[in-house]
Records
---
Amino acid sequence: MKRILGWTLVVLWAVGVYSQTELLGNIAGRKIMDLSGTWNVIIDAYHVGERNRFFEDRKPKDPSELVEYSFDRSGTLKVPGDWNSQRESLLLYEGPLWYRRVFSYHPVDGKRQFVYFGAANYHATVYLNSEELGEHSGGYTPFNFEVTGKLRDGENLLVVEVDDRRSRDAVPALNTDWWNYGGLTREVTLVEVSQAFIQDYFVQLAKGSAREIAGWVQLNGVAAKSQVQLEIPEAKFRETLTTDEHGRATFRFPVKLSLWSPENPKLYEVILSSSQDSVKDEIGFRTIETRGSKILLNGKPIFLRGISIHEEAPYRGARAFSHEDDRSLLGWAKELGCNYVRLAHYPHHESMVREAERMGLLVWSEIPVYWDIDWQNPATLAEARQQLHEEIARDHNRAAIILWSIANETPMDPARLQFLKALGNDVRELDSTRLLTAAMNRTGREGNVRLVNDPLGEVVDVLAVNEYIGWYEGRPEDADRTEWKTSWDKPLVFSEFGAGAPYGRHGDVGERWTEEYQAGLYEHQLAMLRRIPSLAGMSPWVLMDFRSPVRLLPGVQDMRNRKGLLSDQGQRKQAFYILQKFYQEMASH
Ligand code: GCB
């Protein structure tokens, strides 16, 4: 089934059609019915649900009828939320699981409705009133289906099969250093819009200009030459756009704006209105570019004082999804002295990006093209492209995002380079205003000199390196003798370095798994980094300990990656203060 879907995707991609409807922009700015809450579920380990037509939610009509399943009697789970953390027996479960939600709705004549999923990991098949709406692959990006005319007046039945089995041809593939949290991990909502509505829009500063905004508005369901008004009241800006025969209007206008930055995270209310629809958003405006080895924000060089973050909830070991989760994680980043976060290794919740933006944190956003995936497989490329498109479609108005990362630690081979070049081209086409990057980990060597010479360096705007001197190779002191050279005159960021230590485990600085070892490694790394002239920033690995089934050392790891500067209970380790001090110094220069 999955393989067939993969190939179907390739074909659909080639003809420019997808199984699901184009994504609705700015879901928070729409009239929605939140379907969060308690859903009935059936765990379907042997995958019999499709054959037994679980999507019909059948109940025996008389005592003689055979029905071998029951949503009503099989238990419940919360949505949003991964299943692994909600029931002990599901901690390591990977497989299909069926969700059911019955909701009451009264469709209004002349309106259109969509069912919108913030994310479902990994593969979802969606049924409304026993009819299949479509499928979606990719665990961290949103998707929606139009359901106009399919909703009943009164009770409606929504059934979703979510299958999180890992596979060789998926993105990511079989092996990751994080928990494969399955389920409806983000909100499910029913969205109502008018017949002709504003599908999406892109409103940002024009590339290279701090005085002009440029972008497009896409209407859905209109005849050619419709009008859309674009307003930024606070900036006293108001213009009327006229769409072409595809419902699209592009624009470029001068406007005087106060620019968004970590020191001034200024957001403007932006209002788009068409004859039948109106959407409000909060948008920031800033420029981002590179000059030689510098990253320039609003025309001035900036050093990215960052930290890498996984989307894992503090205190409860689960996929994060709430505002409290966002505020805890980003609050710690602020306390460290960060002006930037690397949201690894997949697109995080939209609310996380919006919160970072409000707090003045720049963002690196990434798709899970991670370690080794099936580089030769066109279906895998189609899935990666789809995830990239959905990520950019969701977040293209977020000023905080400055970097789109297309990969993490991928091998140096020609098939991989072709694959990543295709993704790089997509980024350039979809959003030319931001910078392109990828975390690389293969370097050349000449004595004590490390050479950043992965041919992928040619493709990206910002060179990023994951490097583990003193942890996966050599001793922490080796950093003292290591120099770095790049093959391109481009900014270099260290996207990862780090060491593991459970909070409260102490010993000699030379003893692994102790806070002292971790802190010592940070001292050596930071001393090395200070000596690199092209260094434009860093995001050490990682803010908080996180669950990972590949970290098996009992009493030390217990299925957690312990490279956090904080424990998963929010306790600060010694290395936290070392990095904090370094960032304080950097900020005062
Ligand atoms: C890496 C990966 C990251 C791992 C980390 C580690 O290079 O990018 O996902 O968790 O190393 O701890 O090994």
---
Amino acid sequence: MKIKINTLILIGFMSASASGAAGQPALKDVFSQDFLCGAALNAAQFSGTNSPEVELIEKHFNTITSENVLKWESVHPQPGKYDFADGDRYVAFGRQHEMFIVGHTLIWHNQTPAWVFKDKNGNPLTREALLERMRDHIFTVVGRYKGKVKGWDVVNEAVAEDGTLRQSPWMRIIGEEYILKAYQFAHEADPGAQLYYNDFSLENPLKREGALELVKKLQAQGVKLAGIGLQGHYRLDWPELPDIDATIEAFGKLGPKIMITELDVNVLPTPAPWNESEASLNFAANPKWNPYTNGLPQNVEERLASRYAELFKTFKKEHQLISRVTFWGVGDRSSWLNNWPIEGRTNYPLLFDRNCQPKAAFQAVIDVAKTKGG
Ligand code: XIL
């Protein structure tokens, strides 16, 4: 009896200590006939310091996205000064593990320093000067990783919630041609790279229509878009499945592959507009917005698992249109949703918990993969 109990404890310990959870199926294997499976990585992961998460990454994912290190402010912090230290490590990690490497992102309204839009006297840049600056940035960054970064989120979040083009500094100074130019520069810099358009809340009909128009226009102008990224910053009850499905089909019809690029499911109440993932939103902390500091109640854990199951059922059903599903993070502890749109919260948006153990949601996703006919 004693031996049996010890053996059980040992087995329990082994599976609890190996964050890769030996014996667990790997996401990339169970969906190998459907789409690539990936995660966005931060520096602690691709530099190897967060070893439990590295174990999970090696086991489950065959594609990676740079969470922050290839954004303008990281890679090009000052005029004429590029910093590729982290970018190089990120790309080396992906190559070492033979993963499909995605670069995020070239042209965006966030995490782009204010100097980008100003001349050396602090006055707004002219259209021509900003285009030249954009060209230099894209050629330098894409050029450095030519043939290694296989796909780029060239333009991120160019469409506003009402379907019009977002009034970003890019738009205000250059006009809507900034989008076309970004794709042309990226293509010239690496003709072999896949080029993507990436955005959130495209499940909302107004915004979806605006983005569909944008994609059609770019295609008519000769841009070969390889992918449309639906960020997938979802909630337990938003968006509804028919809207997700309709969005996948509407963009899929235009030819590019659909990529779920930043998947997570926010379980916390929020003072932010419920369907917006505008990264610059920031609200004051208040305990009422942070209810699960001591763990996720069982009933919410179950809702999260069934939400993930229904999402993956939809992705699997649409596998011919979808080429990749990437989570925005690995374990709950390092998710951006602990700090957005309120800093210092305890969120539970991913498939692996704060100790890198698989959650009920992980098992639910595996079960979907194993269901025949999905
Ligand atoms: C987020 C990162 O995860 C955070 O670490 C950072 O502080 C802000 O940006 N949409 C995007 C991503 O396209 O780049 C954002 O990433 C999340 C929303």
